[in-house]
Amino acid sequence: MKVPASLAQALEWMAAEPGECKPFAGGTDLMVLLEQGKLSQGKYLSLWGLSELRGIDVAGDFVSIGALTTYSQIQRHPVLRQEFPLICRAAAETGGVANQNRGTLGGNIANASPAADSPPALLVYDAELELVSVRAARWIPYLGFHAGYKKMNMAGDEIIRRIRLPRTKTNWTQFYRKVGTRKAQAISKVCFAVAIDMQDSKVRDVRIALGSVAPTVLRCQKTEAALRGRAIPEALSDGRQQLRAEISPLDDFRSTADYRTRVAQNILEEFLLQAQASIS
User: Fold this and answer.
1) CATH 3.30.465.10 residue window(s) in the chain
2) Per residue, what are the HEC states of the chain?
3) What is the CATH number of domain 173-279?
4) Are 213 and 249 in contact (CB under 8 A)?
5) In 3-state terms, what secondary structure has residue 194?
6) CA nearest 177: which of 128, 212, 205?
7) Residue 183: in which H helix or E strand, if any?
8) Which residue of 63, 80, 222, 260 has the lowest C-beta tally within 10 Å?
9) Residues of the chain with CATH 3.30.390.50
């Protein structure tokens, strides 16, 4: 394992062996693989000590979160708690206290699990990622970052430096639900995040994202379109049908595709009816 003294040194080492030198943050997922005897051999690069990847900055239009920000730090931040409750709820749902003190937002993204807790919230918030290498730094939308199961649109010499959240949904009604085998410390069967903006009893705008229902975390843009501009009672059936068509869950040891589909539809309906009741 290599331990760089600075971000610049880490990027130099990664550039020398692109795709071969594997960066990691808190290491919570690596420890699981190690205990299971499934950790592949290779060169690992610890980013944990890099101060350049830490911190939460609040600006006029954005909140910027360093990739090494832990779930515990996210939960304690007053602006995130007030304006971005979905990401705080996701952080609170991720493992136990030990994992929350060590696990990081950037690591959760880069691990690229379709069952991860924070990515649905990030999609709802229209998050952006800053990717850095020795070549350049670039901002990209988080939407589309996951190209397939455990595949990301990121070069082998790049790492995530920051996550940026636009401060555009503070007045939206927001909802987060994680369904697992247990009430705590469980991998999700369905993870659901949604935010809605209502005007004159109609859906002015909406964001819907789910985990554990596709090879990647999924933003349900067709379902959003089925709801947008319509009153909830008239759009409810179409929303359920479109959501069923848009997700592609699998049968696995945690659950079945049919169960995941029905749960996702029921959570969507529950949220929409709550949003309708709040304006009645």
Assistant:
1) 53-166
2) CECCCCHHHHHHHHHHCCCCEEEECCCHHHHHHHHHCCCCCCEEEECCCCHHHCCEEECCCEEEEECCCEHHHHHHCHHHHHHCHHHHHHHHHCCCHHHHHHCEHHHHHHCCCCCCCCHHHHHHCCCEEEEECCCCEEEEECCCCEEECCEECCCCCCEEEEEEEECCCCCCEEEEEEECCCCCCCCCCEEEEEEEEEECCEEEEEEEEEECCCCCCEECHHHHHHHCCCEHHHHHHHHHHHHHHHCCCCCCCCCCHHHHHHHHHHHHHHHHHHHHHHHC
3) 3.30.390.50
4) yes
5) strand
6) 212
7) none
8) 222
9) 173-279
CATH of domain 53-166: 3.30.465.10
Eight-state DSSP code of residue 49: T
The single residue listed with the structure tokens 């029921």 is 266
Residue 27 has pLDDT above 80, yes or no: no
Phi, psi of 55 (to 5 degrees): 105, 150
Residue 197 CA, distance from chain mean position: 21
pLDDT classification of 183: cutoffs 50, 70, 90: low
Instruction: Please identify which residue in the block is written with the tokens 């996210």.
Output: 74
pTM score: 0.94
Q: How would you label 132-170 residue by residue, b for 16+ Cβ within 10 Å and e otherwise?
A: bbeeeeeeeebbebbeeeeebebeebbbbbbbbbeeebe
**Tokens at 10, concatenated:** 């880490």
